[in-house]
Amino acid sequence: MAEVEELLDDVTLRMPSAAELRARGNRRRVRLRAGAVAVAVAVAVVGGMSWALVQGGGGQKVRPAGGPTPTPVADGNPYKTGDAFDGLTESDVPLYGTWHWKLSDKPADEAVRFPRVGFDDACPQPAPGTPQGKLDRVSYTGIYKGDGEAVARHRYADYGSAVQAADELRRLKDALAACGLKPRGTGADAYYAGTSTGGPWLRVDIDSGTKWISVIEVQTSGD
């Protein structure tokens, strides 16, 4: 230890001042706090990623908010090309193979309006309802004659609003039930049929869109 003491005799030791010691201590504490904050941020990011993977079902991408809105599909109308009405051809009328329909040139009775169904007194006259506002519509009626006494009719109506069309459709189905007709078939082949309260057999096909209704009636003397 004597050699060490001899060496130190020639070395001048300079101790930092109290102010410098305090400054060094402050800088150390700042570095420690910064390191702690960085670690906390890293843990939070990793934790958030893990939560997203669990919620997303194995890392699935999540669509950001404000994505594109699907384009609404237009209401298809098979009975119109633009503003022009396309009447049914004779072979398009149900049961053409049985009754061999021919379009009649006899003027149609425009007084027969929805929700009345059936020819003459085949079905009871429905009780008057209260439509939702004025039925702003343009109607079409086509009459078809078949073999024997079979007759068919196609009626079509446009409405001023979806509410009016829905209300008329509801009253039309109520009239079918009052006539004793039952739903038959499923999907696109669905229709109403049965022996009406007036005696003849009646089939009614209904097609509808947002603002339009199409009704095809086939009436015969038997099933």
Explain this structure.
This protein is of the alpha+beta class. It is built from four helices and nine strands. Strands 3-4-5-9-8-7-6 form a seven-stranded antiparallel sheet, covered by helices on one side. Strands 1-2 form a two-stranded antiparallel ribbon.
What are its keywords?
223 residues; alpha+beta; seven-stranded antiparallel β-sheet; two-stranded antiparallel ribbon; 4 helices
Entry summary:
With 223 residues, the protein is an alpha+beta fold.
Topology:
Blueprint: H1 2-9, H2 18-55, E1 80-81, E2 84-85, H3 96-99, E3 102-103, E4 139-145, E5 151-158, H4 162-178, E6 182-184, E7 191-195, E8 201-208, E9 212-220
Antiparallel strand pairs: 1-2, 3-4, 4-5, 5-9, 6-7, 7-8, 8-9
> Could you report the average pLDDT, rounded to the nearest whole number?
73
Strand order of the largest sheet: 3-4-5-9-8-7-6
Low-confidence stretches: 1-16, 36-73
- Main pleated-sheet profile: 7 strands, antiparallel
Helices and strands, in order, run as HHEEHEEEHEEEE
Number of DSSP helices? 4
- Work out the radius of gyration: 42 Å
Q: Assign a percent range to the helix content.
A: 25-40%
Taking the alpha carbons of the first and last residues, their distance comes to: 129 Å
Shape: globular
- Count of extended strands: 9
Structural class: alpha+beta
